[in-house]
């Protein structure tokens, strides 16, 4: 009999626990309406990055990513043009082959590709998983990244005079020629970028000095 | 049959249209039956949604969210889907039994509402054997489950049906015994008389007035959960052991009938609890009587839903042991104590 009375209070305790959970807010994420914030280093869709200032592709057609890719998901066609510079004719990434290992990003010395936290690209047609250069660039427009390439340019940049400097920027401008479509440049973005980069530069030495 | 309130009013209205005799009765009760049917259908749909919402939030999910505000018409859409579905029938079934089982389950669930007063005068017919009638008619549900189990010609279905029969036969005894305590104090089997005996102060409610009233309520509740085949006594359809128990071979509308009947039984059981122990439609005067009735009933339904989503299922032997070794002696003891108190007048009438 005592057992039953004890058991009854245990049952009430159980109801209390479920009742307590009833008042808590649900942990479910209402997916299409609410989206989770992806971690900064999450490996999702691969995108081609554009230059922060002129919006041209960072890619130099060096083929390192293509060679690093274990599943051969990247296909690049870049014949040499008249000035013996490589011209990026085709850059295709097949997401049905991609294994999101991130080796392409590691191989790239020019911050041309990045694995991002984007993930909504499912499609009913398998061919739509093969993305061309324009799509890869467009998706990557709003992606923030640390420019490995720019540092090298800027180390060289302060030394020569203005007239000489224009000659040196040419290689990056040659990438513009590959772009058959006119590149839409949002002036707001570039302005903010321009302001940010010097600030970063100024701040970095300060923090180092303080440390 | 003593007609009261709404029935009398409806009869007078219809008589003014020139109806009389047998036809008048038929038309009156047809209207009342369809009104009850409509109310209960909506209620069953609501209860399914409500149970899913509560279950979801208890597990920190949302439950149905897609159809309308917080999925309010989810069950309506589910019902429409079930209507459109193919009626799959096993070739080796017992044709007559298989067909009539869900119908009987549905009828048994609805028929109990003849004597349930939704409010002051809101009752189809005030039978002088009201509560006995409910006990008798709800037992048909068990027969229908047994029929479903037998007619399906499936071992799981038959096991589920047999379990259900054994369970309900066992729990009928403590249920009747806990109801008898109330009947002893009300001095009547009529549901209206039982409710009226608890009028006035809320301390007149049987749960407070009857000696060991909370105990009688608890034993009733346990037996009622067993009667309604709900967790922790849902052995008839124990998914993990019997796949789906008695309704394994049913699909489409036949399954929907079983499903809705289950939720109507849930409401019936709660409504009886309110009539017997919580003063039925009585409450503060400024709120209409039917509102009180529904408020109280939904509170009991909420408790039953909480119980369902809190406790695990009992084993068959535990179930039987609990009924015969514990509940039956306890409820009988309670009747004896209640009878002694009643005989010596040791109770209040405020």
Cα distance spanning the termini of chain A: 72 Å
Order of helices and strands of chain A: HEHEEHEEHHHH
Q: Give the uncertain stretches of chain B in residue-range form.
A: none
Write down the CATH topology of the domain at 46-188 in chain A.
Alpha-Beta Plaits
Tally of individual helices of chain A: 7
Strand tally of chain B, please? 0
**Residues in β-strands, percent of chain A:** 5-15%
- Shape descriptor of chain A reads elongated
Mean model confidence by pLDDT of chain B? 84
What composes the largest sheet of chain A? 3 strands, antiparallel
Distance between the termini of chain B: 31 Å
Order of helices and strands of chain B: HHHHHHHHHHHHHH
Comma- or semicolon-separated keywords:
heterodimer, A: mainly alpha, Alpha-Beta Plaits, three-stranded antiparallel sheet, two-stranded antiparallel sheet, B: mainly alpha
Summarize the structure.
The complex is a heterodimer of chains A (211) and B (350). Chain A is mostly helical and 211 residues long.
Q: Layout of SSEs?
A:
The complex is a heterodimer of chains A (211) and B (350).
Chain A: H1 2-23, E1 46-48, H2 64-68, E2 74-77, E3 90-94, H3 103-107, E4 113-115, E5 130-131, H4 133-139, H5 148-156, H6 162-178, H7 187-210
Antiparallel strand pairs in A: 1-4, 2-3, 3-5
Chain B: H1 5-16, H2 21-58, H3 74-84, H4 95-111, H5 130-138, H6 140-152, H7 155-186, H8 191-196, H9 206-209, H10 213-227, H11 239-242, H12 252-277, H13 289-308, H14 316-344
Helix pairs in contact in B: 1-2, 2-3, 2-12, 3-12, 4-6, 4-12, 6-7, 7-10, 7-14, 10-12, 10-14, 12-13
